[in-house]
Fold:
Amino acid sequence: MGSQSKIKLAYIAGFLDGDGSLMLQLKKRSDSKRAIRFMTTICFYQDARHSKTLYWIKEVLDIGYISNRNDGMTELRINGYEQVRNILKSLSPYIQFKKLQTRALSQACEILSGTKFNKLTKKQLVKLVDIILAIQSENYVTKKKKTKNELYKILNLTP
Structure:
């Protein structure tokens, strides 16, 4: 990797540290028998007046989609276990403030990209719940998030 590429990755990592978030979520699903799915996301946020930066990041990483929110913000979202894992691997040497979330989400991506949802063991599901809670505890939260007990109930992990 050339020094230009490393500089770009370092810039993107800094942007993620300041104006981004890493998420592991349980989402409702209506397109299959299984009513839920895990979703991994890297999200970059920027005031819509300065959204060019997000287009540049999208171009450098060659992935993601950009949307304009109703509150005047623009966001670049990257979803998918393997895509998120690969981007975090590239950015992790330069991440300063979101190291815990980066490690946790990378670990979740390893579990999820290697196993279909219905083949996840109880131990893996418990680990994924722990990862969700660890990431949540480090993130700025605007909405009420699910508790450990609520997550266990959704995943049928309660005795």
